[in-house]
Specification:
This protein is of the alpha+beta class. It is 22% helix and 29% strand. It has a single domain, classed as Nuclear Transport Factor 2, Chain: A (Roll), CATH 3.10.450.50. A hairpin with a 2-residue loop joins strand 4 (104-110) and strand 5 (113-123).
């Protein structure tokens, strides 16, 4: 397989007629770039995701996040202190895993922006499971994440959303 092509593998079984969600077969391959700045930005966001969002380490937020952090998720206010509080209140601390445990499809980076795309498992109003996608977009400045976007809607449930609950069982 060409090194310019992302290897994707099925993430879950789906009902007949639906295409199964596909995830990256090798997350480390997604971190590679010929541009050392792009590679560093990808690694910064990847390590922040594993450490802060996945492992719930609020004490590590400032290792990755700049002091003037701007948050575009309507459920979390801007600021590094607000992010620390959100992490402390929304998930338990866990060991830091070597990879992102959510079903990661891609890491796309250009200039000062890095985007992660995930498969997301949801249920409709009848309880039937379906799969969609989720993204997190980060802007980096001086080696720190200074801005974040995602498609979250305003919801009380989002205040307690632990992304670890969105893992797919194989």
């Amino acid at each position: 397989m060409s090194s310019n092509r992302t290897a994707l593998v099925p993430a879950a079984e789906v009902p007949a007629g639906q295409t199964p969600p596909m995830v990256a077969a090798d997350q480390m391959a997604l971190l590679r770039s010929d541009d050392p700045i792009i590679a560093a930005n990808k690694r910064l966001c990847y390590d922040m995701y594993r450490t802060v969002l996945q492992a719930g380490r609020a004490d590590k937020v400032r290792d990755y996040i700049g002091p003037q952090y701007i948050q575009h998720n309507p459920n979390v206010v801007s600021g590094v202190e607000a992010l620390e509080e959100f992490i402390r209140n929304s998930r338990p601390e866990r060991p830091i895993a070597p990879t992102i445990e959510l079903p990661l499809i891609s890491i796309i980076a250009e200039r000062d922006m890095v985007q992660f795309t995930f498969v997301r498992k949801e249920a409709d109003e009848t309880g039937a499971v379906y799969y969609t996608s989720w993204f997190d977009l980060f802007r980096i400045e001086n080696g720190k994440i200074v801005e974040h976007w995602d498609p979250a809607l305003k919801s009380p449930g989002m205040l307690k959303l632990d992304p670890n609950e969105k893992r797919l069982s194989k």
